[in-house]
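My current task is to audit a protein record that another person submitted. Alongside the sequence sits a line of tokens, each denoting a local backbone shape. Where you disagree with what is written, explain briefly why. This is what I was given:
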Amino acid sequence: MRFLEALIITLVVLLACNSAFSIAQGLSLSAHAIRMRSLQAGITPDTEDKTKDSEERSLYKLLKVQWWISAKKSDEYVKQALKLDELDDAALKEHKNLKYFTYFQDEKRHNLLSKAFRRNLPTFEVWKKLNLDKITSRDQLKDIYQAADFRAYSRYVKMFDNNVVGLVNGGFGAVPRVMIARGATDPEITGRTILMAREGRSDNVAKVLLGLTEADDPFRGLSGAKLIQHQDYKYFELF
């Protein structure tokens, strides 16, 4: 009975959470669909019961993942709870619970980026929130390009920059308080500059995003001696 109650709670949570609903669609099947396949393929009642049990367990794990996210549990805590903490890379890739851990990480990062964008935070603040401030040299960037945290940072940079591009082009949007946060590190600004170049940003947009603008007009880029003498000109050269 307790399990059925937990299942009901799971369904309620899933209905309230669109993100959880999308993965639930991939993990669960309707009872009607199961019955139809049972008739078509000659599945026995025992097999059908096992299928339902498996789906119920999947939904229950989704409920736990949602709770871990809301409770702000750490990656280490969730890995241990899913019995993934003592596995090597090969065993981890094959484990049935890996999809739940991946979902947990993706949702946690998605929530972080959404909140940061609503608050209009500079990219360096997100860099720190993703624990990328452990990178102390731009030479280390090549080692993290495919890391989940850097990919999340890349998504935020694109969101932030797209907003600024709209403003530069005369559109509407929330004007960032600062383009380059005080204390931003060389690896962060370098990584951001590389991402700007990959997106094909114009020279003027790059100047705005790097804070290379006139004091009285945050959307008018510097030129000539003013540009070359700016302390962050090296990043524009990199761009």
